[in-house]
Write a structure and sequence with these properties.
Strand content: 5-15%
Transmembrane segments: 6-27, 144-162, 193-213, 348-366
Keywords: Membrane, Transmembrane, Transmembrane helix
Number of helices: 12
Number of domains: 2
Radius of gyration: 28 Å
Structural class: alpha+beta
Organism: Silvibacterium bohemicum
Number of strands: 10
InterPro entries: PepSY-ass_TM
Distance between the termini: 39 Å
Protein name: Putative iron-regulated membrane protein
């Protein structure tokens, strides 16, 4: 058996083993590709048609009005420099109240049904978690399947390589052929989807490995010349006492200082501090929230509004920068809408690779059984003829 044929059989075996898991990841990944755009479209009627030209209310009023509308403890506040875009007051990960960022009037609930759907899909994709319950064994299987898929991408490229690099040999493997049927058609599709999407799929899968395995994340940091970060404990931290509504005005000074920190900001995300936290943490974004280079972390003291820490992307160590690149590369967000379309095409191609791979395997198995039956039917005839001659 040649090395190429051995690699083919190994490619086939791994594909049959992990195919269904890869299809699951491709489906959940494709669903989340345009999450932000879908939610934005669902909330299009909540945009503020005629923003107020008068002086705006204090930011704490947004939180107070949201709590009156949606009882509970808010966990975050998102402000936008665009006056037509309503502010978002988050209650956990599944509820959002939209508020006029200037007048403070509650517009209504956001597309919370969609947010719940995408949150559940993300939990399934990342943790194999449903209703907040993680299944560590299934997660380990999922992570191993991601490793196996990376091997399949690399081995598939080697198997695809034609023996001669001529247009005559390359053309059937890189373009769809409309005159084929059955096994030949599926082999053609498997080659075309695989070779055109091999690079995007390899980047998506490799970044997924980095996010799934601590050892892969550590390798990334070491390659960047930085020490790996400390691993976080797996236990859920105790939830501190949330900030009471009568203390919301203590956040106004910090929020105003955060808005003045970067004149080019487009969105300002604040995580509400606990009752005893002395500081307020912000994420300042100069773009649409999809490029790490345009994000910065800001920490401001709640008492006097003094800046505690300002960390633009360039201030991060190289290892941290590469880790952020991996996160946004995985979803295609780093390249805007074009990147999202490529990511969607790659995930759909992964589904096609799984389908054509299983179909080709079943056809190969059926062909083997047919040959075996034919061989078994011929064997008794030969034995009978030999007996007659004797």
């Amino acid at each position: 058996m040649t090395l190429r044929r051995a690699l083919l059989w190994l490619h086939l075996t791994v594909g049959l083993t992990i195919g269904l898991v890869v299809a699951f990841l491709a489906i959940t990944g494709s669903i989340m590709t345009f999450q932000a755009q879908i939610i934005g479209w669902a909330e299009r009627n909540s945009r503020i048609a005629a923003p107020s030209q008068q002086s705006c209310v204090e930011p704490s009023a947004l939180l107070e009005n949201a709590v009156d509308f949606e009882p509970g403890s808010p966990t975050g506040l998102m402000l936008y420099s665009d006056p037509h875009q309503p502010a978002e007051v988050a209650f956990g990960t599944d509820r959002v109240v939209l508020v006029d960022g200037c007048e403070g009037k509650v517009i209504g609930q956001g597309a919370n049904g969609l947010r719940n759907f995408f949150q559940a899909t993300r939990d399934l994709h990342r943790w194999i978690a449903l209703n907040g319950v993680r299944h560590e064994t299934l997660r380990a299987i999922k992570n191993a399947a991601v490793l196996g898929f990376f091997f399949m991408i690399l081995s598939g490229i080697v198997i695809w390589l034609p023996r001669k690099f001529t247009w005559k040999h390359l053309r059937p493997a890189i373009f769809f052929r409309g005159n084929l049927k059955g096994r030949a058609r599926e082999w053609n599709w498997h080659n075309v989807f695989g070779i055109w999407m091999s690079l995007p799929l390899a980047l998506i899968v490799l970044s997924g490995i980095i996010m799934a395995y601590p050892w892969a994340n550590a390798l990334l940091y070491r390659a960047a010349g930085d020490p790996p970060p400390m691993e976080r404990a797996g236990l859920e931290p105790k939830r501190p006492k949330p900030l009471s509504s009568d203390k919301f005005p203590t956040l106004d000074l910090a929020i105003r200082k955060a808005m003045m920190q970067d004149a080019r900001w487009k969105s300002l995300s604040m995580r509400l501090p606990a009752a005893k936290d002395p500081n307020v943490t912000f994420t300042v974004d100069e773009g649409e929230g999809s490029r790490p280079q345009q994000r910065a972390q800001l920490v401001i003291a709640r008492k006097d509004g003094e800046m505690v820490r300002w960390e633009p992307f360039s201030a991060n160590p190289r290892g941290r920068q590469w880790r952020l690149y991996a996160r946004f590369l995985h979803t295609g967000e780093m390249f805007g809408m074009v990147g999202r379309f490529i990511a969607l095409s790659a995930t759909l191609s992964a589904l096609m690779l799984v389908w054509t791979g299983f179909s080709l395997s079943l056809r190969r198995f059926a062909s083997w059984r047919k040959r075996r039956r034919a061989h078994m039917a011929i064997a008794p005839d030969k034995e009978a003829k030999t007996t007659v001659r004797v």
